[in-house]
């Protein structure tokens, strides 16, 4: 305990509010990231199905998902831009000293955002204005643009975990920068693919969860069946892949960042035959209370044999490692991520069994309850992954080169606390507005789908397709701005 108090006392007063502000904005932004990265691909899969099978329901779903994609992207640009500014405002020591080494990743992300905005605009414009094949082909670059943005930010973060591509001069400043080496660091590959597949799995479960809720409420038409099946199938297929990638990145951390691995697994002293703790709490004296202890399992997971030597936290001075509290937080985040991943794998296997052996969807309402919760659980797992990655690296902002206290701004802590309060209020408004817009869109779509029952003008989702002619306006309806019988969107615009 004395060591922890000493480390906190030596930290600048503005460090805590700066970290809280960065953590809040990052945790908020990452809620939107899965849809931003993976929804374009999911939408294009549905779009392709609609064109290949001449399926009007699939085309309608793709068009509606593209509208959600645009709204989400607009909000994601705002929250992502805030994060970019915070790097310079909150961590000037980092950007001033190291920005020339790893800043290329932020440049790539900025260009990817711009490119994706243009492509989304073209894709939205193309519905009913371009030939179906041309429209689909113009949408194909969208997933690549989304992956390019992830490439940029993951390259920067991977460099912070395993910095390379430079030499230090006599004053300790980086010189002779090699850009390619700085981008493709040892942790880049494991981090990038683990992140990308996590985004695809999460987005798939989030989208499918919306239709699972509708299924539980009795909406069991083809529209909801297809809206559930396509994204859930993609997520279920990639869930076991994600488990393997998660295991791979854990081994990469074991080799490249042994102290971070020790914090994640709460290993106090370097040893072999190290037990694995599921949850539990690490104390400053190295003791562990609570949790479930499994003998030798940590060594087996790290090196496939009980005799694997695992580096402990005490292998470095206290000032160069996470505190006991930070290690416990990283460990809990990692374990919760692993538990959620295991539950999602069971859900995916249940789904796969029914689809492959029985050629139908599972009939149990418990499956759809699980599917409805899978999206939220996936987002929680993504949050836990970032907590593990960032908290486990403490006290380094650039691993073994710069401590976080050296990078923090000199702005007064009071000002940072006020800024945090303002940002929280603004973000509540932004996310509340996003939710309101999505709910309004959902209500409009439901009204459009219900019009046939009410005897109104549209023929519903089965025939009122994005590329097909609009249903004729019955006699007595007011003329549209484009003239009698002019094609109209679902909101009534020509």
TrEMBL record:
Q: How does it sit in the membrane?
A: Multi-pass membrane protein
Q: Name one GO biological process term.
A: aerobic electron transport chain
Which positions carry the signal peptide feature in this UniProt record?
none
Annotated TM spans: 20-46, 67-89, 101-124, 136-159, 192-214, 226-245, 329-354, 366-389, 416-439
Mark out the compositionally biased spans (Pro residues): 469-484
**Which subcellular locations apply to this protein?**
Cell membrane
Keyword line: Cell membrane, Electron transport, Heme, Iron, Membrane, Metal-binding, Transmembrane, Transmembrane helix, Transport
A GO CC annotation recorded here is: plasma membrane
Q: Which InterPro entries match?
A: Cyt-d_ubiquinol_oxidase_su_1
Q: Name a GO molecular-function annotation.
A: heme binding
**Does the keyword field hold Transmembrane helix?**
yes
Q: Which Pfam families match?
A: Cyt_bd_oxida_I
Main location, first listed in the record: membrane
PANTHER family, alphabetically? CYTOCHROME BD MENAQUINOL OXIDASE SUBUNIT I-RELATED, CYTOCHROME D UBIQUINOL OXIDASE
Family, per entry: Belongs to the cytochrome ubiquinol oxidase subunit 1 family.
Name of the molecule in the record: Cytochrome ubiquinol oxidase subunit I
